Amino acid sequence: MLSRSEEKLNKIRSDIDALGADIRRSGDMLLTALKDADAAEFERSRAVLSGIDAAANAIDNEIVTSLALFGAEAHDLRELVAYLKITNEMVRIADNVRGFAKKMSKYISSCRQEGMLQLCKSSISALHLALNNDHLQSEDMYRKVKVEESKSDDLYAILEKNILKELGKNLDFSANCIEILSTARKLEKIADRSVAIAKLILYARSGGALRTH
Questions:
Q1: Could you tell me how far CA 142 lies from the centroid of its own chain?
Q2: Does residue 153 sit within a domain?
Q3: Would you say residue 98 lies in a domain?
Q4: Contact between 91 and 131 (Cβ < 8 Å)
Q5: What sign results for the dihedral spanned by CA atoms 120, 122, 126, 129?
Q6: What would you report as the CA-atom Rg of the chain, rounded to the nearest whole angstrom?
Q7: More confident residue, 136 or 3
Q8: Are 59 and 83 in contact (CB under 8 A)?
Q9: Domain that includes residue 160, residue range
Q10: Is residue 213 part of a domain?
């Protein structure tokens, strides 16, 4: 029979996994919307995350309660602290997903940059790797997320160069250029936050210094 602290920890793990599943699903919808130039799908991806803040707050409250009421052993304590930070990263990722969907639904008809699609693929790949609930090989997962994050940096730089080149040809496009680049930056931030989550998962499993940046 599980102790109350073990039951609470299992519930927190389950709730974290459910939160991650919603974010992954929204990310997949974001990628589909970009591929198909589907403004309605962008809106649906935002709708999936409508309750993300309340869900994250509920998990944080469960974590704080566990820390206050139960004398967690070192490993469990490390895991709880990591989860408390992971929920914050998840909320920030959700904000970037929603922000990208909202902005891109307006510019989808004027932005047909293949680089944007590749950047989105890389960022969502990093997201999936970090939020996969099977982290038995945490170090391998972390390396793979870092690869996707590095790729997203390179893809953003290429996209920026291409868009600015278009700006040089058509100054009337300037306002859109600025907005599209700002929107693309949200994809890069999704990859960055995914790395932060991967670091926290590695910390929860292996210990060491707690660093997310």
A1: 14
A2: yes
A3: yes
A4: no
A5: positive
A6: 19
A7: 3
A8: yes
A9: 4-206
A10: no
Q: What local confidence, expressed as pLDDT, does residue 109 receive?
A: 63
Q: How confident is the model at residue 31 (pLDDT cuts 50, 70, 90)?
A: very high
How high is the pLDDT of residue 135? 56
Q: Is it the case that residue 100 has pLDDT exceeding 70?
A: yes
> Is a pLDDT exceeding 60 seen at residue 144?
yes
Q: What CATH number corresponds to the domain at position 12?
A: 1.20.58.220
For residue 111, the model assigns a pLDDT of 57
Neighbours of 73 (CB within 10 A): 10
C-alpha span between 93 and 27 (Å, rounded)? 10
138 in any annotated domain: yes
CA-CA distance, 28 to 48, in Å (whole number)? 11
Identity at 96, one-letter amino acid code: N
pTM summary value: 0.88
Provide CB contacts within 8 A for 182, sequence distance 6+.
103
Give the number of domains in the chain.
Answer: 1
Instruction: Give the pLDDT confidence score for residue 197 in this predicted structure.
Output: 95
CA distance 151 to 124: 12
Complete DSSP assignment for 5-39 = HHHHHHHHHHHHHHHHHHHHHHHHHHHHHHHHT-H
Residue type, 93: I
Question: What DSSP string runs through 74-116?
Answer: HHHHHHHHHHHHHHHHHHHHHHHHHHHHHHHHHHTTT---HHH
Tell me, what amino acid is at 55?
A
- Cα diameter, the chain: 70
